[in-house]
Amino acid sequence: MMNSLIKYLFSALLAGLFFTACTKMDHTYAKFIEDGEKVYSAKPKTIDFFPGNNRLKIRIGLVAAPNVNKINIYWNNRNNSVEWELEPDFSGDTTFFDGIIDDIEEGRHTFEFVTSDKAGNHSIKVDTVGMVYGEDYISSLKNRGVKSAVAKREGMEIKWFDTPYETAIGVEIHYQNTVGEQSVVDVSLDEFNTVIEGRPAGDSIRYRTAYLPDSNAIDTFYAGFQTVHLTPPGPEPLDKSLFSSYPLPGDAENYPVSYVKLDNIWDDDITGNSWYGTADPAGNPHWFTFDLGVKAKLTEYTIWQRGVVSTLSLVYAHANMKKWELWGSNDPDADGGWENWTKLTESESHKPSGLPFGEVTPEDYEYAKKGDTFSFPSDVPAVKYIRVKVFETWDPGKSHRSFLQEMSFKGIAE
Question: Which residues are in the DUF5000 domain (predicted)?
Answer without folding.
Answer: 266-409
